């Protein structure tokens, strides 16, 4: 078979990664030395949050996104936890709300003031107590602002109703530590990976395990739903101790649809999926590179596109929500990379090269907005609703306004440049006139 038959043309074939300049980085951050396999970083269009080294408890920094540069060593922190912070997640609906989990067995909800912190924050908006051991993972519901999930080392997942501040469900179907959780698009299904090497698809409202894969030959570490494709992707380690990815049908976990070995490195491989562009990004802990693929429902299911390379190893990666992209630069994804040795957070933009400066509708389809599609009570009663509709229209209008604003600025700068050139020319002509007047005067005197 010719290689041409396997090749699939793609508008994302030439996507490239662009690291931020030094002026766009955040420096002097005492990034945590914790060995827990989390990202320790969360970002939204207003703030960047990073878990830091802290004596006498857990803490994390919250930095206004528009203030890059060297961070003051005495910059205020969120430091209300009694133990080390293990995970942080911004609410997808409210940019000032962030959740954190800790070794002190609690989950806390914080409200960050506009403009950032002016002093250390110790008082949480809400303290959620229910786990008997440290809480390693938290996950916001994708369509309901009042639902949050937490997974602890007590092998339990708790579903919290934040509108009432109570745990409404306990999922107790894992015999060992939960390594990863992922919601599908409308939040009706939950995929989990566990230390017992099993992949599970769970109905989160009932706690019932709908599908289960016994990955005896593979140690599954991370799992992610692939949008509306009814597929689940896992990353893990094969029996030959090589890192690999596997694609599964969410309705039949008897065997993977396809498996692919990546390399022989040892760091956990983190998957990031962009449902808008159907692109998958793979970044290994301790690696300096980010691989990216295009996902399709037919063969070849995973089409390798390219790889972003960097000499600096990453401890974790934060991901900017789609509404924070720079559409004028055709930016479709943005990472915030933690570089522990340098105390640095570096933005990395994934860009589609386009000649036109107009809005590129084909690479920026309708995306989730900030309006919650459901209340906690509605979701708990069994209602499912995608995060689409009016919020998407608002988001599109917002993107177009941003683009129009940038185009207007370019026109203003261009006009200012032309005015400056005309002023220079006028000055030169004035000087020439003065010289000619002097020459004429000298001729008359002679």
From TrEMBL:
Stretches forming WD repeats: 78-120, 128-170, 171-212
Residues covered by the DUF1899 domain: 6-69
Transmembrane segments: none
PROSITE patterns associated with the record: WD_REPEATS_1, WD_REPEATS_2, WD_REPEATS_REGION
Coiled coil regions in record: 405-446
Gene3D superfamilies reported in the protein's UniProt record: YVTN repeat-like/Quinoprotein amine dehydrogenase
One function term, GO molecular function aspect: actin filament binding
Keyword vocabulary terms for this entry: Actin-binding, Coiled coil, Repeat, WD repeat
Pfam families named among the record's database cross-references: DUF1899, WD40, WD40_4
Record keyword Transferase present: no
Family indicated by similarity: Belongs to the WD repeat coronin family.
Protein name: Coronin
Source organism of the structure: Sinocyclocheilus grahami (Dianchi golden-line fish)
Underlying gene: coro2bb
